[in-house]
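To the wet lab folks,

You asked to see what we're planning to order before we commit. Fair enough. Below is the target structure as tokens, and below that is the sequence we designed to fit it. If anything looks off to you, flag it before the synthesis order goes out.
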């Protein structure tokens, strides 16, 4: 009986991605990525792959023939996208705080 392999995201050559990417999966990059790339898995940048920005990965494999211009952190992280998640929660919390305040004022007859 064979063991199941972990899911992999493949960013193929000819594909250019810009922005923020947070994954739990392993990532194999033969295309181009610019921005913040986070994964709990292994990031493999193969020949022809390009990464510019920042990398936060559980493991990193750099094959010959790639271009990596990034701030790199390798090792276990608490969870991918933790910073982005926390920032979105703060933003959502402030939005709801304002709406709840208006609802409270309406309920008390102040508006």
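Sequence we intend to order:
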């Amino acid at each position: 009986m064979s063991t199941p392999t972990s899911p992999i995201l493949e960013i193929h050559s000819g594909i250019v991605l810009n922005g923020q990417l947070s994954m739990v999966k392993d990532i194999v990059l033969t295309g181009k990525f610019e921005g913040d790339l986070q994964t709990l898995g292994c990031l493999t940048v193969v020949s022809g792959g390009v990464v510019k920005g920042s990398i936060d990965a559980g493991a990193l494999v750099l094959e010959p023939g790639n271009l990596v211009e990034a701030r790199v952190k390798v090792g276990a992280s608490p969870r991918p996208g933790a910073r982005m998640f926390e920032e979105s929660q703060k933003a959502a919390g402030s939005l709801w705080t304002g709406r709840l305040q208006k609802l409270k004022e309406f309920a008390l007859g102040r508006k």
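Structural context that might help your review: Residues 91-95 have pLDDT under 50 and may be disordered. The radius of gyration is 20 Å.

Thanks,
Computational group
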